[in-house]
Fold:
Amino acid sequence: MKVSIITPSFNQGQFIERTLASVARQEGAEIEHVVIDGGSTDNTLDILTNFTPSVNWVTEKDRGQTDAVNKGIRATDGDIIGWLNSDDIYYPGAIVQVVNYFQNHPDVDVVYGKADHIDIKDEPFEEYPTEPWDFGRLKYHCFLCQPAVFFRRSVVERYGLLDESLNYCMDYGYWIHLALAGATFGYLETKLAGSRIYPENKTMGSRMKVHREINDMLRNLTGSVPDKWLFNYAHTVVELKMGRAAHKRRFRIALTVHALLAAIRWNGWVSGHMMKTIIVKAFSIGWKDNG
Structure:
């Protein structure tokens, strides 16, 4: 089996050499690694030019990360596709385990493994909360860690590319799209990758936009947004407006109000069960002070 690894990149010179090295040390399959760079102005291009072994790459202005991933998929021809961001890494032996899984499970379209959250020094500080496959659970919690997910090229041929209207949850949206379309998922209970978390990365730095886009995506694909995501959105809104230093009673009231408004905005109504759930969640938040 040939494996195509797509790396979207933009100004990640701080990390991309480690990303490239994590792919270069993989064994057990024919691997093509393509970097789609969006016109980096840091030292990324110097690293790509001088890296050994050589990597296929292109640099040009694009429409964002999702566009870059789709470009990479179209530019490659491997039987299996992996998508590794330019600040993430594969663990040693990841690819051979993925190839073996696909060979032993010909009915599986998508396989995902375990992963860690890593810091800027590549040190794991917590395990990503992966779970065995359950589509019902997926709507409430994205338990697939994107760099630890691989899919057959036939998936793209049957179900299409990533949705380029999504800027933050394009991976989560793609997993849900594939599941709704009938793709089969397999869980490889082995750690495959490290997903980097640091304050400057896109998701951490854009919390409000992330939650808003997730809610839009879930409503568009599944018809409604679960309570959990409505509450997460409301919590982000209130925390950004008031801060956690706010008086706990005012914070909880504001949280309840914004959660109910979110339910109306995305679901069009508030059920009695939803109202009870939101209020219980809002008033169960722990607090360090006595305000």
Observations:
- The longest strand covers residues 185-196.
- Residues 270 and 276 are 10 Å apart (CA to CA).
- Residues 224-282 form one domain.
